[in-house]
Design goal:
single chain, about 120 residues, alpha+beta, Nuclear Transport Factor 2, Chain: A, two-stranded antiparallel ribbon, about 25% helix, about 30% strand, globular
Length: about 120
Amino acid sequence: MAYYRGYNTVDNIFGSTRLTESQLVRRDILNHFNVNQGEAVMRPNFGSIIKSIVFEPLTEETQELIIDEVKRVVQSDPRVQMTDMELQEFENGIQVAMSLRYINTDLSEQLFIKFDRDTQRAVFV
């Protein structure tokens, strides 16, 4: 029996929109990163500022901003706990590797998200 059930139609053409457990949590976290902070109606703290930071040079200060923002977004989801995180720059943006532990389950996984300058989207790798 699934603890978490939901649906999502993003990037889904003619397939099932039902998601459970880790699929749903991963998609919700990715959605959170793809919304600009302040863009969601009646939810000024929902979203992320990373898409605007990704265009800045990767200095110590911007690294700290990105790390703090990733922690804030992941901590806003009560279904997961981040146990580790790494930040890397690549040609067209930034990649974040994080280890997540799912609450109420025995599941842990490594999650890779790229913040791409060209597409201005966060995507799973």
